[in-house]
Amino acid sequence: MSLMPAIRHDYPVPVRGESAVVVPVAAAEAVVSAWRERFDSSAMQGMPAHVTALYPFLGDHDLTEGVLAGLSALCGEFSELRVRFDRPGRFPGVLWLDPEPAAGLLDLTVRIASRWPQAPPYGGQFADVVPHLTVACGQEATLDAVEAEITPRLPITAVLTAARLYVFDGSHWQPRAELPFHGPRGSRILSATRPAS
């Protein structure tokens, strides 16, 4: 099969210093990584397969120790999430996988957005937030072909044990903090340099 690279040029482009809270889905990598590397710009920028909890989150300069501690405590209130990706879904120009049950992931988004109302999901562009794992962006014919390839490899089952905070450095997403679910010790800071509270 020959597929032309088809990253959408109108897809949101991250800005240097933006952050994102995501839930990595390592169990999906074997099925989606090859397609994401070709058709999802976030994969090219270092983002693993994931379900977005909140993007954009706060700017890099606002990620103080107090914010990181609060985000860690909030995520630590969640137990691990067991999900199953049974079927693909579509937004215009986007192919994604549907996590079930999605309630825990949606609750995570709602809780973070409620704690930091200055950071609504997707900048407030959408009335409803749909938890999803993006596989590819592009023209419908490309998405049809990718969907045909991945569907026989579903379902994917995953145990999600942590969220992760990333910051965009202008070319790549850099991990800033690991945010365990039900973790006894809170977040593990992954960057040696961060603003003081």
Protein model, in words:
The protein has helices at 29-39, 41-44, 65-76, 103-115, 140-150, and strands at 19-24, 50-54, 81-91, 94-100, 133-137, 156-160, 162-168, 173-180, 188-189. The chain is globular and about 45 Å long. The chain is α+β, with helices and mostly antiparallel strands and 197 residues long. It has one domain (19-189): Cyclic phosphodiesterase (Cyclic Phosphodiesterase, Chain: A). The protein contains 5 helices and 9 strands; from the N terminus they run E-H-H-E-H-E-E-H-E-H-E-E-E-E. The model is unreliable at 1-10, 184-189 and 191-197 (pLDDT under 50). The strands form 2 sheets. It has a 5-stranded antiparallel sheet. Helices cover 26% and strands 28% of the residues.
Strand/helix succession: EHHEHEEHEHEEEE
Alpha carbon gap, first and last residue: 53 Å
CATH architecture: Alpha-Beta Complex
Low-confidence stretches: 1-10, 184-189, 191-197
Mean pLDDT: 89
CATH topology: Cyclic Phosphodiesterase, Chain: A
> What is the β-strand count?
9
Q: Please outline the major beta sheet.
A: 5 strands, antiparallel
Top CATH class:
Alpha Beta
What form results from the Cα inertia axes? globular
CATH superfamily: Cyclic phosphodiesterase
Structural class: alpha+beta
The helical percent reads 25-40%
Which percent range describes the beta-strand content?
A: 25-35%
Q: Please, how many helices? A: 5
What number of structural domains do the residues give? Answer: 1
Radius of gyration: 16 Å
